[in-house]
Amino acid sequence: MELILATGNPHKKEELSRILAPHHILIPSDIGVSFDAEEIGTTYLENALIKAGVLAEAAGGRPVMADDSGISVPALGGAPGVYSARYGSNEAGRELEAPERNDFLLRNMSHLTGDGRRAFFVCCMVLILDEYRIFTAQETFGGIIADKPFGTGGFGYDPIFHLPDRDCTVAELDAAEKDRISHRGRAGLRIKAVLDNLDASP
Q1: β-strands 64-72, 2-5: how paired?
Q2: Are 82 and 44 spatial neighbours (Cβ–Cβ below 8 Å)?
Q3: Active site residue 167
Q4: Shortest CA distance to 54 belongs to which of 1, 14, 4?
Q5: Confidence class for position 9, pLDDT limits 50, 70, 90
Q6: Contact 87, 79 (CB under 8 A)
Q7: What is the C-alpha separation between 37 and 178, in angstroms, rounded?
Q8: Per-residue model confidence (pLDDT) at position 67
Q9: 118-130, strands of its sheet edge to edge
Q10: 201: confidence class by pLDDT, cuts 50, 70, 90
Q11: What is the pLDDT, as a whole number, of residue 71?
Q12: Strand residues in 28-187 grouped as ranges (E)
């Protein structure tokens, strides 16, 4: 099945193209559609539904998918949470690049040690086939925040998200392993199961 993904992020397109293969992933720019959704929700599900709904209307009823994801640190009251992509922007007066957001989080956690550095990623995905056929999946992925960035793979907060059982950050994983265990990989496999079932239906 061909799906339009509600993002302008080429990293997400690449990652979900792997996870959802052989289903074909496009982004709005691939089909000449302008996409801009205001993420005003207070949960990952609300934001994913907002993005998917806006794109479904712009794409003229073609099947669409959206995800909303972020990282939460319980010791910081769950921050950055749904504001992960905008974290530190208010303080800086502009949108920060990913390495700057990572540095901002590390500074805010400089006083935390041990269990206080626990964190988890969340990914919520929404698949809209038509107005009344909507599927959702939400998954998590736990670890701890490292003292400094390591690795060059992945994107976003991956370089500072340490996996104790593997003694590496997500940015040090190969793509196949990340897809298998990450929050986006887990949620994506739930959505892929739906898509595969639809393709197999008579």
Answers
A1: parallel
A2: yes
A3: no
A4: 4
A5: confident
A6: yes
A7: 28
A8: 95
A9: 24-26, 2-5, 64-72, 118-130, 133-145, 161-163, 168-169
A10: low
A11: 98
A12: 64-72, 118-130, 133-145, 161-163, 168-169
pLDDT of residue 200: 63
142, pLDDT greater than 60: yes
Task: Using alpha carbons, select from 48, 5, 51, 11 the residue that is nearest to residue 29.
Answer: 5
The one catalytic residue in 30, 36, 68, 103 is 68
Token pair 């910081």 in the structure block, residue: 76
39: left (phi over 0), alpha (psi -120 to 50) or beta: beta
Domains of the chain in sequence order: 2-200 (3.90.950.10)
Instruction: For residue range 84-106, list pLDDT tens digits in order.
Output: 999 999 999 999 999 999 999 99
Question: In whole angstroms, what is the distance from residue 201 CA to residue 62 CA?
Answer: 19
Query: Are the C-beta atoms of 95 and 82 separated by less than 8 Å?
Result: no
Place of tokens 């099945």: 1
